[in-house]
Amino acid sequence: MTIVRDIPWTFDESAFLRAASIDGSDELADEALRLARVAAPLLIPKAVYAEVEVERLGGPEEWDVVIGGVTFNSEILRCNLEGVERVYPYVTTCGAELEGFDLAAYDYLAFYWVDQIKQAALTQASAWVRGRIAEHVGSKKLATMNPGSGDADVWPIAQQVRLFELLDGATDEIGVTLTDSFLMVPNKTVSGVFFRSEVNYMNCKVCTRENCPNRRAPYDAALAHAGDGDEMCGAPLGGA
Ligand code: SF4
After folding, report:
1. Any bridge partners for residue 89, and if so which?
2. Pocket test residue of 206, 209, 216 for ligand 1, highest count of atoms within 8 A of CB
3. Per-residue pLDDT tens for 126-176?
4. Ligand 1 atom 8: the closest Cα is on which residue?
5. In the chain, what are the domains?
6. Does 183 sit in the ligand 1 pocket, CB within 6 Å?
7. pLDDT, tens digit, for every residue of 13-53?
8. Buried b (16+ CB within 10 A) or exposed e, 43-73
9. Which of 5, 82, 172, 187 maximizes the CB count within 10 A of its CB?
Protein backbone atom coordinates (compact mmCIF):
# COMPACT_ATOMS: atom_id res chain seq x y z
CA MET A 1 0.00 0.00 0.00
CA THR A 2 1.36 3.40 -0.94
CA ILE A 3 0.05 6.55 0.72
CA VAL A 4 1.14 9.89 -0.69
CA ARG A 5 0.14 12.91 1.37
CA ASP A 6 1.71 15.70 -0.64
CA ILE A 7 1.37 15.29 -4.40
CA PRO A 8 2.95 18.29 -6.12
CA TRP A 9 0.71 20.61 -8.09
CA THR A 10 0.87 24.15 -9.38
CA PHE A 11 -1.94 26.65 -9.53
CA ASP A 12 -2.23 28.37 -12.91
CA GLU A 13 -4.23 31.60 -12.61
CA SER A 14 -4.92 31.90 -16.35
CA ALA A 15 -6.16 28.31 -16.57
CA PHE A 16 -8.32 28.90 -13.49
CA LEU A 17 -9.98 31.94 -15.03
CA ARG A 18 -10.61 30.05 -18.26
CA ALA A 19 -12.12 27.09 -16.39
CA ALA A 20 -14.35 29.51 -14.48
CA SER A 21 -15.36 31.21 -17.76
CA ILE A 22 -14.01 34.57 -16.55
CA ASP A 23 -12.41 36.95 -18.99
CA GLY A 24 -9.20 38.39 -17.57
CA SER A 25 -10.59 41.90 -18.00
CA ASP A 26 -13.88 40.99 -16.33
CA GLU A 27 -14.40 42.72 -12.98
CA LEU A 28 -15.04 39.29 -11.49
CA ALA A 29 -11.45 38.31 -12.26
CA ASP A 30 -10.05 40.35 -9.39
CA GLU A 31 -12.52 38.84 -6.94
CA ALA A 32 -11.95 35.28 -8.20
CA LEU A 33 -8.18 35.69 -7.95
CA ARG A 34 -8.48 37.25 -4.48
CA LEU A 35 -10.13 34.03 -3.36
CA ALA A 36 -7.87 31.71 -5.36
CA ARG A 37 -4.68 33.26 -3.99
CA VAL A 38 -5.82 32.41 -0.47
CA ALA A 39 -7.46 29.05 -1.17
CA ALA A 40 -5.20 27.37 -3.72
CA PRO A 41 -2.03 27.33 -1.56
CA LEU A 42 -3.95 25.49 1.15
CA LEU A 43 -4.76 22.48 -1.05
CA ILE A 44 -2.51 19.45 -0.82
CA PRO A 45 -3.57 16.59 -3.13
CA LYS A 46 -3.16 13.08 -1.80
CA ALA A 47 -3.55 9.48 -2.93
CA VAL A 48 -3.51 5.91 -1.82
CA TYR A 49 -2.86 3.04 -4.21
CA ALA A 50 -1.85 -0.59 -4.07
CA GLU A 51 -0.79 -3.48 -6.26
CA VAL A 52 -3.03 -6.52 -5.88
CA GLU A 53 -3.46 -9.83 -7.64
CA VAL A 54 -6.43 -10.79 -9.73
CA GLU A 55 -7.39 -14.01 -7.97
CA ARG A 56 -10.48 -15.14 -9.80
CA LEU A 57 -12.48 -14.23 -12.88
CA GLY A 58 -15.96 -15.71 -12.79
CA GLY A 59 -18.50 -16.52 -15.46
CA PRO A 60 -21.56 -14.78 -16.83
CA GLU A 61 -23.81 -15.89 -13.96
CA GLU A 62 -22.40 -13.20 -11.67
CA TRP A 63 -19.51 -11.63 -13.57
CA ASP A 64 -17.56 -11.89 -10.34
CA VAL A 65 -13.99 -10.71 -10.05
CA VAL A 66 -11.92 -11.41 -6.95
CA ILE A 67 -9.11 -8.93 -6.42
CA GLY A 68 -6.98 -8.99 -3.29
CA GLY A 69 -9.64 -11.05 -1.51
CA VAL A 70 -12.48 -8.66 -2.35
CA THR A 71 -15.25 -9.63 -4.79
CA PHE A 72 -16.63 -7.23 -7.38
CA ASN A 73 -19.40 -7.87 -9.89
CA SER A 74 -19.21 -6.18 -13.27
CA GLU A 75 -19.33 -7.65 -16.75
CA ILE A 76 -17.09 -4.97 -18.22
CA LEU A 77 -14.57 -5.19 -15.38
CA ARG A 78 -14.57 -8.99 -15.72
CA CYS A 79 -13.90 -8.81 -19.45
CA ASN A 80 -11.32 -6.05 -19.10
CA LEU A 81 -9.31 -8.21 -16.72
CA GLU A 82 -9.10 -11.22 -19.02
CA GLY A 83 -5.39 -12.09 -19.07
CA VAL A 84 -4.50 -9.44 -16.48
CA GLU A 85 -2.58 -10.65 -13.44
CA ARG A 86 -2.33 -7.52 -11.32
CA VAL A 87 -4.38 -4.39 -10.87
CA TYR A 88 -3.82 -1.12 -9.08
CA PRO A 89 -6.76 0.14 -6.98
CA TYR A 90 -6.49 3.80 -6.05
CA VAL A 91 -8.17 6.81 -4.53
CA THR A 92 -6.82 10.23 -5.47
CA THR A 93 -8.13 13.42 -3.92
CA CYS A 94 -7.64 17.15 -4.26
CA GLY A 95 -7.22 17.17 -0.47
CA ALA A 96 -9.63 18.03 2.33
CA GLU A 97 -8.08 21.38 3.23
CA LEU A 98 -10.84 23.44 1.63
CA GLU A 99 -13.74 21.50 3.14
CA GLY A 100 -15.46 24.02 5.37
CA PHE A 101 -13.43 26.94 3.97
CA ASP A 102 -15.22 30.14 4.99
CA LEU A 103 -16.58 31.81 1.86
CA ALA A 104 -18.51 34.55 3.66
CA ALA A 105 -16.05 37.26 2.68
CA TYR A 106 -16.25 36.48 -1.04
CA ASP A 107 -18.63 36.81 -3.99
CA TYR A 108 -21.58 34.39 -4.12
CA LEU A 109 -19.79 32.55 -6.97
CA ALA A 110 -16.96 31.60 -4.61
CA PHE A 111 -18.36 28.11 -4.05
CA TYR A 112 -18.09 27.44 -7.77
CA TRP A 113 -14.59 28.93 -7.94
CA VAL A 114 -13.38 26.73 -5.10
CA ASP A 115 -14.64 23.73 -7.05
CA GLN A 116 -12.59 24.84 -10.05
CA ILE A 117 -9.47 25.11 -7.90
CA LYS A 118 -10.12 21.68 -6.41
CA GLN A 119 -10.65 20.22 -9.88
CA ALA A 120 -7.33 21.61 -11.09
CA ALA A 121 -5.56 20.03 -8.13
CA LEU A 122 -7.31 16.70 -8.71
CA THR A 123 -6.52 16.66 -12.43
CA GLN A 124 -2.82 17.18 -11.78
CA ALA A 125 -2.78 14.67 -8.93
CA SER A 126 -4.54 12.05 -11.07
CA ALA A 127 -1.95 12.43 -13.82
CA TRP A 128 0.82 12.16 -11.23
CA VAL A 129 -0.60 8.93 -9.78
CA ARG A 130 -1.12 7.44 -13.21
CA GLY A 131 2.48 8.30 -14.08
CA ARG A 132 3.78 6.65 -10.93
CA ILE A 133 1.87 3.46 -11.59
CA ALA A 134 2.81 3.39 -15.29
CA GLU A 135 6.44 3.76 -14.30
CA HIS A 136 6.08 0.89 -11.83
CA VAL A 137 4.32 -1.33 -14.38
CA GLY A 138 6.79 -0.33 -17.12
CA SER A 139 4.04 0.47 -19.62
CA LYS A 140 1.93 3.44 -20.59
CA LYS A 141 -0.85 1.11 -21.75
CA LEU A 142 -2.84 1.63 -18.59
CA ALA A 143 -6.59 1.96 -18.46
CA THR A 144 -8.84 2.69 -15.55
CA MET A 145 -12.36 1.78 -14.49
CA ASN A 146 -14.21 3.72 -11.82
CA PRO A 147 -17.26 2.58 -9.84
CA GLY A 148 -20.25 4.69 -10.84
CA SER A 149 -18.73 6.09 -14.04
CA GLY A 150 -20.80 5.93 -17.20
CA ASP A 151 -23.93 3.78 -17.32
CA ALA A 152 -25.13 2.72 -13.88
CA ASP A 153 -24.76 -1.00 -14.56
CA VAL A 154 -21.19 -0.87 -15.93
CA TRP A 155 -19.68 -0.90 -12.45
CA PRO A 156 -22.38 -0.05 -9.90
CA ILE A 157 -21.43 2.80 -7.61
CA ALA A 158 -22.39 0.76 -4.52
CA GLN A 159 -19.18 -1.20 -5.10
CA GLN A 160 -17.24 1.86 -3.93
CA VAL A 161 -17.54 0.24 -0.51
CA ARG A 162 -15.63 -2.82 -1.68
CA LEU A 163 -12.97 -0.68 -3.36
CA PHE A 164 -12.43 1.16 -0.08
CA GLU A 165 -12.28 -2.22 1.68
CA LEU A 166 -9.58 -3.29 -0.77
CA LEU A 167 -7.58 -0.23 0.26
CA ASP A 168 -7.84 -1.39 3.84
CA GLY A 169 -8.93 1.82 5.50
CA ALA A 170 -6.03 3.86 4.10
CA THR A 171 -8.54 6.31 2.62
CA ASP A 172 -9.03 7.67 6.15
CA GLU A 173 -5.38 8.66 6.13
CA ILE A 174 -5.88 10.91 3.13
CA GLY A 175 -9.10 12.41 4.49
CA VAL A 176 -11.53 10.73 2.09
CA THR A 177 -14.87 9.38 3.29
CA LEU A 178 -17.92 7.81 1.65
CA THR A 179 -21.45 9.07 2.08
CA ASP A 180 -24.44 6.73 2.48
CA SER A 181 -25.05 7.15 -1.25
CA PHE A 182 -21.46 6.11 -2.03
CA LEU A 183 -20.26 9.54 -3.06
CA MET A 184 -16.78 10.55 -1.98
CA VAL A 185 -15.92 13.55 0.19
CA PRO A 186 -14.08 15.76 -0.77
CA ASN A 187 -16.19 15.89 -3.93
CA LYS A 188 -13.10 16.27 -6.13
CA THR A 189 -11.88 12.76 -5.49
CA VAL A 190 -11.59 9.88 -7.92
CA SER A 191 -11.44 6.17 -7.19
CA GLY A 192 -10.87 3.21 -9.44
CA VAL A 193 -8.62 0.47 -10.64
CA PHE A 194 -5.76 0.79 -13.11
CA PHE A 195 -4.97 -2.22 -15.30
CA ARG A 196 -3.01 -3.04 -18.42
CA SER A 197 -5.15 -2.67 -21.53
CA GLU A 198 -4.20 -3.23 -25.13
CA VAL A 199 -7.46 -1.73 -26.41
CA ASN A 200 -7.19 1.62 -24.63
CA TYR A 201 -10.34 1.02 -22.62
CA MET A 202 -12.23 4.18 -21.56
CA ASN A 203 -15.44 4.43 -19.57
CA CYS A 204 -16.86 6.70 -22.29
CA LYS A 205 -16.69 3.81 -24.77
CA VAL A 206 -19.29 1.89 -22.77
CA CYS A 207 -21.42 4.89 -21.77
CA THR A 208 -24.64 5.64 -23.66
CA ARG A 209 -25.13 9.15 -22.31
CA GLU A 210 -25.86 11.48 -25.18
CA ASN A 211 -24.49 15.00 -25.58
CA CYS A 212 -22.06 14.66 -22.70
CA PRO A 213 -19.67 17.64 -22.86
CA ASN A 214 -16.91 15.57 -21.28
CA ARG A 215 -17.05 12.58 -23.63
CA ARG A 216 -13.51 11.48 -24.57
CA ALA A 217 -14.32 8.62 -26.95
CA PRO A 218 -17.33 7.47 -29.00
CA TYR A 219 -19.60 4.69 -27.76
CA ASP A 220 -18.30 1.23 -28.74
CA ALA A 221 -21.11 -1.34 -28.78
CA ALA A 222 -18.73 -4.28 -29.16
CA LEU A 223 -16.81 -3.27 -26.06
CA ALA A 224 -19.98 -2.53 -24.09
CA HIS A 225 -21.36 -5.99 -24.86
CA ALA A 226 -18.12 -7.92 -24.72
CA GLY A 227 -19.70 -10.60 -22.52
CA ASP A 228 -22.76 -11.20 -24.64
CA GLY A 229 -21.36 -13.54 -27.28
CA ASP A 230 -21.06 -17.31 -27.39
CA GLU A 231 -17.42 -17.04 -26.46
CA MET A 232 -17.26 -15.32 -23.08
CA CYS A 233 -15.77 -11.82 -23.34
CA GLY A 234 -14.94 -12.41 -27.03
CA ALA A 235 -11.36 -11.41 -27.70
CA PRO A 236 -9.43 -10.53 -24.53
CA LEU A 237 -9.79 -6.83 -23.76
CA GLY A 238 -6.98 -6.58 -21.27
CA GLY A 239 -3.31 -7.43 -21.53
CA ALA A 240 -0.77 -9.40 -19.59
S1 SF4 B 1 -19.61 10.03 -21.78
FE2 SF4 B 1 -19.66 11.54 -20.13
S3 SF4 B 1 -20.87 10.56 -18.48
FE4 SF4 B 1 -20.24 8.96 -19.92
S5 SF4 B 1 -18.33 8.12 -19.04
FE6 SF4 B 1 -17.77 9.70 -20.55
S7 SF4 B 1 -17.55 11.59 -19.35
FE8 SF4 B 1 -18.69 10.12 -18.07
Report:
1. 193
2. 209
3. 999 999 999 999 988 899 999 999 888 999 999 999 999 999 989 999 999
4. 150
5. 2-52+84-201 (3.40.109.40)
6. no
7. 999 999 999 987 888 999 999 999 999 999 999 999 999 99
8. bbbbbbbbebebeebeeeeebebebbebebb
9. 82
